[in-house]
Write a structure and sequence with these properties.
The protein has 5 helices and 7 strands, in the order H-H-E-E-E-E-H-E-H-E-E-H. The chain starts with a helix and ends with a helix. It has a single domain (about 35-180), classed as Roll (Chitinase A, domain 3). The chain is of the alpha+beta class.
């Protein structure tokens, strides 16, 4: 009997030993990430050259470069005193999306009128930043590299991977956050 108790006690003590870590099967050098960064830089350079060619050959419009990395021109400019949207403001707008060859991907009618609370709802990065540049009753056309559009995933519908886009945005109404809270 003592022999069995000793074996059980010995087994219990051996079971208390912590897990022994395994060595990794592969050691990653980080080269995949470096290659991915290099590939994205090359892609961005190609797309920026494409956009610069469009700008160079478009003598009808005056393009404005943004710090965010996209370009735009005004179709309709509001010289009045209304402000651009701020965080938490409700913006009512319409937009259409085209490729850089002006083929319509999503028409304004197809997308409909949108209500967007600035910086609180999900839009692709270029659209989110473009809306913040416009006042009420302004309309502008934007040229976005794919990194500011739908990127390497596309929209999983009509827009493929790494597709630079042209979008025309019309701001119908800006409702400041303070006005919405008081109602």
């Amino acid at each position: 009997m003592k022999k069995y108790v000793f074996i059980i006690l010995l087994t219990g003590l051996m079971a208390c030993e912590g897990p022994i870590p395994r060595k990794p099967v592969e050691i990653r050098s980080g080269s995949f990430i470096k290659e991915s960064v290099d590939r994205n830089k090359r892609l961005l350079a190609i797309e920026e050259r494409l956009i610069q060619d469009i700008i160079k050959h478009d003598s009808l419009h005056t393009y404005i470069a943004t710090a965010s990395g996209f370009w735009y021109y005004y179709d309709t400019k509001n010289e009045g005193g209304s402000n651009t949207p701020q965080t938490d403001d409700m913006v009512t707008f319409t937009y259409s999306i085209m490729n850089l060859e002006n083929d319509i991907i999503y028409s304004e009618q197809e997308l409909g009128i949108k209500n967007y609370i600035v910086d609180k709802q999900d839009l692709f990065p270029g659209l989110r930043n473009g809306i913040k540049l416009l006042k009420e009753q302004e309309k502008a056309t934007f040229l976005f590299p794919s990194s500011l559009a739908y990127g390497y995933l596309g929209d999983k519908n009509k827009i493929g991977i790494n597709v630079p886009l042209k979008a025309t945005i019309s701001i119908l109404k800006i409702e400041p956050q303070n006005d919405r809270i008081l109602q």
